[in-house]
Fold this protein.
Amino acid sequence: MLSDLAKPRLALTLFWRTFALLALLLSGGVLAWQQTFKVLEAEPRALESAQQLAGLVNLSRVALANTDSINRVAMLSTLARSDAVQVRVAEQSDRWQAYDANTFAKRLAAELRERLGPGTVVARSVNQEPGLWVRFSIGEDAYWLQTSAAPLSVSLSGNAWWLGIALIATALGSALITRLINQPLRELSFAAHRIREGEYDSRLDESTRTSEIREVNMGFNRMARELAKMEDDRAVMLAGISHDLRTPLARLRLEAEMSVADEQARQFMAQDIAQLDAIINKFMDYARPSEVQLKPIALAELAEREALGFRKPEEIRILVRLPAELRVWADETELARVLLNLFENARRYGHAPGEASLVIVSHRSTGPWVDLLVRDFGPGVPADKMDRLTTPFFRGDSARTAATGAGLGLAIVEKSVQRLGGQLQISNARGGGLQTIIRLQKAQ
């Protein structure tokens, strides 16, 4: 297998990874500071509440102590109906819950006992009625003082809106900072992609204030200039090779046809010259930097046209099983070159000795993609040599050392598929033979 068509289920980009880590860090900081403020607020509020409650208890104690028994009952009846402060007689059957649920409650209860005496009881509910209850004594009588319908506490409920705003601001700030951090890397990624596609004039900003990014951009631009120069030199060299080799080959062909009397020898010489010319064409196809123009291509029509040149039943039979309406985004020249090399490879190697090659061209749809399948029914390729099939000048087995090809067919296929923005997979098919899958984007 040369290229894995399956993509990872979860591809986390650098932006989202940085954003998640930064947002988690800042959100944790906001929550930690909020908790710190809550803890710092607990002690002064407990002291203030204890001072007020102690004053109310002492005031109630003095008022009840200086009242006779008849007026005390009337006063207790009046205080029991009050909304702010209620005083009730404590019974031995009363059941209460201690007021020590959190740090604030413990601090408040301790302060009240210090101010009112060690026998003071502070409860968060009496007989299942919630509130802040303080039990005090006057002589042999005991009383409950309730100051609120619910226990006092330091909570986040009053500041929930502030916490929500802080977390939203943290998320937005994290996104902005992450974008600023990743922008140079994103630009570098785009420029590298353009270089891979053959656009060697791509340049990055060398005037940025960040020294590390500036040095990377300068090095990338220098590399792009060197690659552009090498590409220009290669184009000139290829043009020279094409001219310098094909001119003497043409003369050799002409001289062989005119001067060699033996018909069989003349045919052999013509075949050798044609083979040399075909090898030169392979070299040129592999090395030529072609400009790709993607447009909707009728896949069945293109495959039928390329198969026409191989309709020799004694050598190869090609069955095209593609719907006429199937279209893909591709460059017609590049995709034709891919099919031409695959058919030629199957004609030479995809058959048993003494038999003609059989090639089936089919497809399958995978979401927005189309998988073009080209399969032969030959001996296939050993598994240990599968990864080297697209290596230039490599042949799949030792029996092919005497073949007339240059060992560039599948290397050209891989390079052309990359230019088309597709994916390539070559493997042994079930039941024998070699299967090539070319994944291209579907054209609507």
